[in-house]
Amino acid sequence: MYKAAVEVSINEVTPIIGNIGLSSVDSLDKYTKTIDVIVGATEVLPGYDEHYEKVIAKVRALAKKSNENGVRPLVLWTSGCKDYGVTDVDGAPNLKPHTEESPIIPSLDFLAPRANSSMRVFENKDLFDAAVLRPTNVYGGSSSHWGLWFELAAEIQKSGKALELTVDPKSIIHGLHVDDCGEAYVALAEHPDRGKVVGEFNISGHTYETARSVWEALEHEYGIGGKVKFVRPEDAKEQTPPSLALIVGYSQWVSSDKIRDLTGWTDKRMLFGENISAYRRAYEAVAASKTRDIGRVDSVRPFLENLKE
Fold first, then answer.
1. Would the pTM of this model clear 0.90, i.e. be above it?
2. For burial by CB atoms within 10 Å, which of 26, 42, 184, 206 has the most?
3. Range in 118-127, 150-159, 202-211, 235-244 the model is least confident about
4. Is the Cα dihedral 209, 210, 213, 219 positive or negative?
5. Would you say residue 1 lies in a domain?
6. GO cellular component annotations, sorted alphabetically (predicted)?
């Protein structure tokens, strides 16, 4: 808990230490009696349904106290773009991006509870306004789940062994720098017309990359040219495990035109493959420091590794 508070303080944010339960709500009074915006960006997999109930109870309690003091909060609730499932690959004739109008049909069963529970945030109109945000994967800093790209490349460099992938090299890899993602949240929080912010918003980079282009950047960066091979499933000795395919072969193009048109927000940082050296250095520095975000990602790994085809 103390380490988390230090990390927040480094970013010039005042940490308030509490817990997910309701016991710490009253202690907030000495800091503030009103809240303008509440951001929900936590996740537990598996077990999201139960986690949602605990968090929304806390959010409602905070919103109730704020309302009693004259301020109705805005809640920005985080789900994820995988709520929509997958799109076709780059170059496919019928390729279209997922938009906020796309049906919520997760292609991964374990994500269904998150997709469904997140929409329930709109059931709390008595206490707050809400928006459900669906960002893509993020990179920069710890690179979150995309740290796996660096781990795989480093292992190839160390072992000298080739990696065969049974994923389509044209799979769309659509990510976003974590700082750009944070600025998108701020853009919605600061928008003067609350009525237009209520709803659903995708957050994504201005364009996508492909599995092949990302690996080409990694091969150049790590000096492992020719070590990553894309093979047809029927020709492979082993299939790429779902835990890897979920990162390096999950094809999805996500439109973020809605938030751009409403707020003027845009992503500014370079794409993952365009600035791979800088993102690698950042990842390695954060990984060496063993921050809580690295621990969070590592804690999910065993669950993902047990996923079935």
1. yes
2. 184
3. 235-244
4. positive
5. no
6. cytoplasm
Asked whether residue 254 is domain-assigned, the answer is yes
pLDDT band at 304 (very low <50, low <70, confident <90, very high): low
Q: How far apart are CA 308 and CA 302, in angstroms?
A: 13
Domain range spanning residue 247? 32-303
Confidence of residue 309 (pLDDT cuts 50, 70, 90): low
Residue 137 φ/ψ, nearest 5 degrees = -60, 150
Alpha-carbon distance 133 to 125, whole Å? 17
Mean of pLDDT values over 226-233? 96
Q: Please name the amino acid found at residue 62.
A: L
In a domain, 6, yes or no: no
Per-residue pLDDT tens over the stretch 56-79: 999 999 999 999 999 999 999 999
The residue ranges of DSSP E strands in the chain, in sequence order, are 37-40, 74-78, 129-135, 137-139, 163-165, 172-173, 175-177, 199-203, 209-210, 228-230
CA distance 187 to 261: 11
Residue 5 half-sphere exposure toward CB, CA atoms < 13 A:
8
- The tokens of 80 are what? 């994820």
C-alpha distances out from residue 88 to 85, 147, 234, 260, Å: 10, 24, 20, 24
> Is 292 part of any domain?
yes
Which residue bears the tokens 């009253």?
A: 26
